[in-house]
Design brief:
By secondary structure, the protein is mainly α. It is 76% helix and 0% strand.
Length: 193
C-alpha cells in the first residue's frame, strides 16, 4: 500500500534533510526491487523513521515489509515491539506469536513473547513459549530464569527454585537470580509449615 509521507516539520533542518534524502532514495529504488529486497528496503526506511520518533511512519513501512515478505519473522517481530511500545498489548502478543511461528529459533522473539504473556497473566502460555528452550538449552540463563519466575507466580516453589538454580549455573553473578531463588526456597518452607 502507499506509504504516507510523515510530517517532518517539528524536526531540526538537518534531520529533515536526512529523512527527505532517504525517502527520495527509497522511492527511486523501489520500482526496481521485489521480494525480500523490497521488504528489507521498507524495513530500513522504517528503522530510520523510528530512530527519529516517527513511529506511525515506521509502523507503516514495517507493515509494507510484512506484506511483501509474509514468511519473514523479523517484520511481525518488529511490529510486535512497536505495539508493545504503544501499549497495545493484545496486538503485540498476536504479532509476536506470528513472528515465533515463522522463526522459532530467534530467541529475542521468544523472550519478548514470554515476558509479555507473563505480564498479561497468561502463565500457561508463557510456560509453553519458553519451556522447550529452557530444557533444550540449559546454558541460557534468561530462559531458565523466566521459567523460575513463572513457577514462582504459579506457587510451584520447588520448580521455581530448580529453574533459578539452573539459571544461576549459567550466570552465577546474577544477584537478582540469587534473591529470587532465596524467595522460592523461603516459600517452600512457608508452604510446608
Amino acid at each position: 500500500k502507499p506509504l504516507a509521507e510523515p510530517d517532518l516539520s517539528a524536526l531540526p533542518a538537518e534531520t529533515r534533510a536526512v529523512l527527505v534524502a532517504a525517502r527520495k532514495d527509497f522511492d527511486a529504488a523501489r520500482a526496481n526491487m521485489v521480494g525480500l529486497y523490497l521488504a528489507e528496503a521498507y524495513a530500513q526506511l522504517g528503522a530510520m523513521y523510528a530512530r527519529y520518533g516517527l513511529l506511525e511512519a515506521a509502523r507503516g513501512a514495517l507493515e509494507n515489509a510484512q506484506a511483501v515478505a509474509p514468511e519473514d519473522g523479523r517484520f511481525p517481530y518488529l511490529l510486535g515491539v512497536f505495539a508493545l511500545q504503544s501499549g497495545k498489548l493484545p496486538l503485540a502478543r498476536d504479532q509476536l506469536k506470528q513472528a515465533l511461528a515463522l522463526d522459532d529459533n530467534y530467541l529475542p522473539i521468544r523472550y519478548r513473547l514470554t515476558t509479555l504473556l507473563i505480564e498479561l497473566g497468561d502463565l500457561p502460555g508463557a510456560r509453553r513459549s519458553i519451556e522447550p528452550t529452557a530444557k533444550a538449552r540449559p546454558e541460557l540463563a534468561p530462559a531458565a530464569a523466566m521459567l523460575g519466575e513463572i513457577s514462582l507466580r504459579e506457587k510451584r516453589y520447588a520448580d521455581a527454585e530448580r529453574w533459578f538454580a539452573q539459571a544461576l549455573k549459567a550466570d552465577p553473578k546474577a544477584t537478582v537470580l540469587h534473591a529470587r531463588r532465596a524467595e522460592a526456597l523461603a516459600a517452600q518452607g512457608n508452604a510446608a509449615a
